[in-house]
Amino acid sequence: MNRVELAELAEAVTAQQQSCRMRLLVCCGTPCVAAGSQAVVAALQERLAGLGNPADLELVGTGCQGPCSRGPLLTLLRPGQPEQVWQKCTPELAVSILEAELQQSAFPVTNLLPADWPFFRCQTRLVLANSGRIDPENLEQYIAQGGYDSLAQVLHEMTPDQVCDSVVQSGLRGRGGGGYPTGLKWQLVRKGSGSRKFIVANGDEGDPGAYMDRSLMESDPHRILEGMAIAGYAIGAEQGYVYVRGEYPVAAQRLRKAIRDAERAGLLGSRVLDSSFSFRIDIRIGAGAFVCGEETALLASIMGRRGQPRIRPPYPAEAGLWGCPTLINNVETFGNIPSIFSIGPQAFNAIGNGKSRGTKVFALCGEVVNNGLIEVPMGISLREIVFEIGGGLANGVAFKAAQTGGPSGGCIPAEKLDTPVDYENLQALGSIMGSGGLIVMGEQSCMVDVARFFMEFCLDESCGKCVPCRTGTVEIYRLLSRICNGSASQRDLQTLEQLCQMVKDTSLCGLGAAAPNPVLSTLRWFRAEYEAHVSGRRCPAGGCSMNELPLHLLGEQLLQRIAALRCDGEGY
Amino acid sequence: MSGDCCEHALLADDPRLKLVERAMKRLQYQPDALIEVLHTAQEAFGYLNRELLAHVAAQLKLPESQVFGVATFYHFFTLRPKGEHSCIVCTGTACYVKGAGEILGRLEQEAGIKAGQTTADGRLSLGTARCLGNCSLAPMMMLDDTVHGPESPDGAANKLNRLLEVPHEQG
Asked: Which CATH class is domain B85-165?
C-alpha cells in the first residue's frame, strides 16, 4: 500500500460508514463482556440476520468505551444526529433500539445516559480517540479514523530530525510515570552510535489498580504500532518489541493480529508505505514481575534473563538491548505520537498545564460512582475528576484520599482536591503521576493499612538485588504491621520514618526508591491516624484489630497480673 | 505427587514435549529466547518440572541454574502441578479497597486451603493476583477463564462451589 492508496481506503471506508443510517457500537471490553455484552451482540446479530443483514445497519464490537462500571454499553451513531449511549444494556433493550429505528418510532429512554453527562463532557480524548469507536481487530476501521496517516506524513514529508524536533515541540513527556521528555529521549537515541537500534514499548503494566495500558492495547492496537513505527523512523531503528504483561493474553493476541494485518497491508515490515524505511515489530510476553517496569530490568527480561535492574549509566539510550541504543517508552506514550502529527505539535502543546502538556489517561476506580477509563487534559483538578467525571463517592461515603501512582505513589488528602493534576504538582504533594491508576478511597479506609498493603506488594516484588530494597521493605512492612495490630511504640514510628528515608535514598532502582512513597505520603497527610494507632491504640477508620500490646504495656500488664495474684493471696 | 505421569522422565514421543521442541527450533535455540520457551513449556505441560527445565537448559546451552533461576524469578511460572480448576482472587488496590480480603478469607475457609495451594484431591488451585486490570469490577475474581465481579464473600463462595460441583472432566 502507498500513501495514495491509504488515503483512498480511508475515504472509501468513511463513505461506507456515513452511508449507514445506523451504527450500533457495543462495548466488548472485559468488564462489559463480564456484564453480558456478548449476549447483546448475539441478539442484535440474530435480528440483523433476520432482516437479511442490510448494508445500512452496522453492528460493531468495540474496545473499551469508558464508563466500565455501567456496562454493557451501547453507543448509537446516526448521520447528522448527536450520538446516544445506553448503559446496562440488555439484549431486549438493544433489539428495541434497533426496532425503534426500523419503525421510525422514538428510541427507548430506559438506561439512556444524558447527552451532557459530565463523564464524557469533561474528557479530552486523543489517545483514546478510537477506543470504543472501532473494532480493534479491524485495520480498515482504524485507517478510516485517520490511522497510519501520521506515519505516511512523517515518512514522506519529514526528516528523522524534524520528527524528533516535533516531538520535542509537542512537550510530550513519558506516560509511564517518570515524566522524562519524550523528544529529548528520542534525540538521545538518535545520536547514539551503533549498527542496530531498537524500540521497546513497555506494556508491562504492573501497578495494581491500573489498566490503561491493557485497555489501550486491547481497544486500539494499531495506534501503538503506528507510534512505534514513527519512533523507529525518527531514531533509525528497524526492529521494535512490545513487552506485554503475561496477565493480558487478549492484548497480546490483538497486537499479534494487528502486526500481521499491518504487515500484509504494507504498513509495517519492509518498505513501509513504499518508502525506503523498514520496520518490524515482535511481541514479548512478560512473566509476572513488577520490577520489569523498570527499564533495565525490562531489557534483561526481553533477553530471556531474570528481570533484575542494573546500575545506570550506561542508560538504555546508549547501551540497551544486546548493547545497542534502545528507546523505551510506555505504550501510552507511543499512543500519543500519532495524535501529535495529526493535530500538529503546537495544537498538542496547547493542551495542558505548566510543563505537563497533552492529556493523561487514568483508570478511575475505587469508591467512586463512575468507575472507568478516562482521558483528561493535564492540569484538570482532582476535584473535577472525582466529583464531576467520577460522580462523587458511592453510598454517601465521605472522600478521604485519592491514591495515584500505585505502589510508587502516594495518597492525596481531601484538602488538596483542588490541585491541578500534572507531574510537578503531584510530586509536590508527595505522590507521582505514575502510569495512571487513580483509586478513590472513602472514610472507612485506614491509611496505615493502605500503606501496609503497598509495602506488602513491594516486598513481594522486590527483585532482591540490592539490600535496602530487599530487607528495607520487609522491615518497613513489619513496623507497619505492628502499628496496625497495636503493638507499636513511638520509637517504632521514628524508626519507620528513618528507614523510609534510607530505602528511598539508597535503593538501586526506581522500585526501591519509590517503595516508601505510600508510607511517607500517608505519614505526611494522615499523621494523626498513625498517632491514634500508636498512642491511642485505636484505628480511626475502624479497620484494624488492635489485638496485640506494645512491649512496655505488656510489661505493665504482667506486673498488674502479678500484683492481682498477690492480693488474692495465691502468690506467684 | 507420586503416580503423576509428569513426574517421570521425559518421553521423547510425548506430544507436549514436541510442542516445546518445535518452539525451541523456531527460536533457533537462542539462549535469549528462554522465557518464550518456558511460556510454551508451561502451556503444554501445565507446569515446569525439573526434568523439563534440565532439558530446556541442555537444548539452549544454558546452565541449569540459570534456567531454574529464571523459572523461579517470575510469578507466572509454576514448578508444581496446578489443580483441575483455578480460582484467582484479585488483590489489586481497587479490589483491596472494596474488600477482596474478606472474599479471599471466605474462599480459603470454603476450600480448606490457603492462597497459593492446591487441594489434596487436585480439584482446585486457589490463588491471588496483583491486579487483573478489571478494576471497575472490583472486588473481582477469576474462575478458570471467566471474570466475575463485583463479588460478595457469599456470592463468591457460591460460585466456587457451583464450579466444583460439576463432575470431574477428563482433559
From this structure: alpha beta
Q: Do B130 and A206 touch (CB under 8 A)?
A: yes
Which residue from B35, B131, B138 is facing A287, i.e. has the nearest CB? B35
CB of B56 within 8 Å of a chain A CB? The answer is no
Question: How far is A477 from A519, CA to CA, in rounded Å?
Answer: 10
Q: Is the pLDDT of residue A124 over 80?
A: yes
> How confident is the model over A325-347, as pLDDT tens digits?
999 999 999 999 999 999 999 99
Closest residue by Cα to residue B73 from A510, A208, A463: A463
> Which of B32, B39, B93 is nearest residue A303 as measured by Cβ atoms?
B32
Phi, psi of A277 (to 5 degrees): -90, 130
Q: Which residues contact A41 (CB under 8 A, 6 or more apart)?
A: A26, A28, A59, A61
User: Considering only CA atoms, which of A423, A394, A398 is closest in space to residue A413?
Assistant: A398
User: Nearest-CA residue of chain A relative to B66?
Assistant: A305
Q: Which residue from A33, A208, A372 is facing B92, i.e. has the nearest CB?
A: A208
Average pLDDT (A30-49) is 94
| Domain extent listing, chain B | 5-73, 85-165
| Contacts with B56 (C-beta within 8 Å, 6 or more apart), sequence order | B20, B24, B34, B37, B38, B41, B62, B67
C-alpha cell at A325: 541504543
Q: What is the ipTM of this complex?
A: 0.89
A407-412 mean pLDDT: 94
Task: Identify which of A331, A298, A345, A329 has the alpha carbon closest to the alpha carbon of residue A222.
Answer: A331
Shortest distance, CA B134 to any CA of chain A (angstroms): 6
Q: Which of A30, A366, A457 sits opposite B147 (nearest CB)?
A: A30
Residues 289-328 of A with CB under 8 A from B: 289-290, 301, 303-307
**Integer angstrom CA distances of residue A153 from A3, A239, B114:** 8, 20, 57
Q: Would you place residue B8 in the very low, low, confident or very high pLDDT band (cuts 50, 70, 90)? A: low
- Residues 414-473 of chain A whose Cβ lies under 8 A from any Cβ of chain B: 437, 439, 441, 445, 450, 453-454, 457, 461, 463
Q: Please tell me the CATH code under which domain B5-73 is placed.
A: 1.10.10
Q: Testing the interface with B: which of A37, A216, A247 to mutate, by most B Cβ within 10 A? A: A247
More confident residue, B64 or A195: B64
How many helices (H) and strands (E) in chain B?
Answer: 7, 4
* Contact (CB, 8 A) for A69 and B136: yes
For B105-125, the pLDDT digits (tens) are 999 999 999 999 999 999 999
3 state DSSP class of A532: helix
- Taking the C-alpha atoms of residue A544 and residue B131, their distance in angstroms, rounded to an integer, is 23
Cα distance between residue A241 and residue A234, in whole Å: 16
